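[RESIDUES AND BACKBONE]
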Amino acid sequence: MDVVTLGESMVLFTPDMEGPLRFAGGFRKTIGGAETNVAIALSRLGHQTGWISKLGNDEFGVYVRNFIRGEGVDTSRVLFDDHAPTAVFFKELVPNQDPKIYYYRKNSAASTMTPEDLDPGYIKEAKYLHLTGITPALSSSCKETVFHAIEIARLNAQKVIFDPNVRLKLWSKAEAKPVLSEIIEKVDILLPGIEEGELLTGESDPEKMASILLRSGPEIVIIKLGQEGAFYATENERLHIPGYKVEKVVDTAGAGDGFAAGFLSGLIRGWTPQEAVKLGNRVGAFALTVPGDTEGYPFWKQVDPNGAQSEILR
């Protein structure tokens, strides 16, 4: 197994028209979740991935599990709960802006995850454990589960990659900062966005952010800068790596997760971290070209530097 990830995935409903949801008459059903976005993107790039979670023992739960399993992700450690539902969320399409998001995930099956739900042997199989700051925001038991997963990985000398992925609809900045800071002390690779870096450090300059965050514990800090690319930093290196120009941005959802997947793919292939960041930028750019969280992620033949190049990215 190359990467195991842990977190909630939900059924996503996207309206068939722009404007307030109250006027929407039809919706397209798919799935969304940061952790499974990464797992699916990695699977398309040719890697073995696994997902740990809980779903409601309902039709939506079966749909989410089947969708993710159909993308080649191992779902053998997904549990079904008879007493809590699968979460759902809605996008509201706003012209010339990012969509508005409406969550219906309180008391969901995934929010009931506990450390006892983890299989240490399964996590031990992976080269990398991927986590986000969304999961600890779901409940106190989810927070404990994240810390226990990190403990398992550290006991087995595995690399932990962490994306803070702050969702202020789930908790406040004051609640998020101390928990995320404690997690950051225990991980190897950190992937904050520019706004998350500012929340965690109080700085607005990527280089200053990275310096502060490196002192917290990670070996590698990468500040995601959207279409500007990414700022890569280690104790001895500082480098801005430009992004790819996308001719038409359709939906920004899933771009950061695509970056994480591309970066991990590069590391798994034995590339230098800088080469891996370039691949992360490229995979993230693909996500911008279509609506939905996972639909735009490329297959390896589309991003293989030795193969044909896609025309959507310049």
Remarks:
- The two ends are 33 Å apart (CA to CA).
- Residues 140-155 form the longest helix (16 residues).
- The longest strand covers residues 49-56.
